[in-house]
Amino acid sequence: MDVNSRHKRTIKNCPMLDKVAFCEDGYPDVVESKDKKFYIGVRFHPESLYLKDERMNNIFRYFVDVCKN
What we know:
Layout: E1 18-22, E2 28-32, E3 40-42, H1 54-68
Antiparallel strand pairs: 1-2, 2-3
């Protein structure tokens, strides 16, 4: 998946989160907690990509669905 990483900061240690997606330079772009219903952190801007990639919309849809429940 192509993302638009605009940030230079990276995650080195995150013992409570799982690193689940990585950019080409090997740094994590997505972290999540499998212990929570919806807990993710992204190092890119899905709100800028939703018109180009339907998968970006899925992030927001899932978040709204979790909030409804």
